[in-house]
Amino acid sequence: MAWNEPGNNGKDRDPWGNNGKNQGPPDLDEMLRKVSRRFGGLLGGGKSGGGDVGKFGLSIALMVAVVVWVVSGFYTIREAERGVVLRFGEYSHNVDPGLRWKPTFIDRVIPVDVESVRSLPASGFMLTQDENVVRVEMDVQYRVVDPEQYLFSVTNADESLSQATDSALRYVVGHTRMDDVLTTGREKVRQETWQVIDSIIEPYHMGLQIVDVNFLPARPPEEVKDAFDDAISAQEDEQRFIREAEAYAREVEPKARGQVKRLEQEAEAYKSQIVLKAKGEVARFNELLPQYQAAPELTRDRIYLETMEELYQQANKVVVDMPAGNNSMIYLPLDKLSGKANAVQPARPAGAPVVEQTPPSNEGANSTPTPLRSGDRFSSGRN
């Protein structure tokens, strides 16, 4: 049964103390006096000192509130952060790392990380200059350099950078051939995309700095992936063959230079040898000239003999002693004899005299060998 329901046997439980006679709003002054009396009783005061005790309790409450307000204003900015202070919602100043204090409900501090490098991925299917579709992926690394511009220059600096990256990437890929995007032109695409991103975000003063741009491997659509893989393999083979050819050239060129140098040195040595030999011949002729003028015949014979001696030293000789009155013809295999003699006879030092061996004669030990002279011929013994 409700507290003010009729027929409650006269036990009206009105919390406002009106006993059902007056249902108007409660008297706030009376309520405050009742609360003050109760607090005064708790603090030990009487009825006469209730007002003073109430003021004392209110002072304590205010002091506690002030202490709580002061304590709540302490905050800490980490080493990698900078604090942006807003006073009544408007930018005031920046604060450095450390323990700081702010007036609560007046200032607001937003910490911003200015040292960490953030990563922003970007990807999608894009149309190249030669009207082919490729899937391109890129990762942009950046960091905050100006906390105030990062928070207030644009609505969302990270989202704005993402849109600028997507726009720059589509622009660069749209002006590049597909083969360059997939193979040799990747570094060029990376550099141009970086430059376009910087040119886009510069007018907005977003407080961001691009640290690096990573261009991940681009892929053709799955329907033509096998054909493009074959094309890429062919280009890799081309580069490999070029490197092998360059390595072979680096190996052969030093050898060729060495051979050229050796031939030059041999030519110089041969030249010096011929010149010195010619000078020696001239000197020898100058020495023989007075002797020839004194005794021409004797000098001519001596020169002839010396020349024949040199010639015989360089040729194989066979001396045959034909018995007198023998009309039979002797066949000599000179080629075999000379070959056997060359094989058996040891090497003769340069300048050593020639020792001629003559086969034994049928006439006995008194027979003497006949030397072979210039112009002599072998004969059968017939007149």
From TrEMBL:
Entry keyword annotation includes Translocase: no
InterPro entries associated with the record: Band7/mec-2_domain, Band_7, Band_7/SPFH_dom_sf, HflK, Membrane_HflK_N, Stomatin_HflK_fam
Segments traversing the membrane: 56-77
Subcellular localization: Membrane
Gene Ontology CC annotations of this record: membrane
Protein name listed in UniProt: Protein HflK
Keyword Membrane found: yes
Amino acid composition bias (Polar residues), ranges on this chain: 358-371
Organism for this UniProt entry: Aeromonas hydrophila subsp. hydrophila (strain ATCC 7966 / DSM 30187 / BCRC 13018 / CCUG 14551 / JCM 1027 / KCTC 2358 / NCIMB 9240 / NCTC 8049)
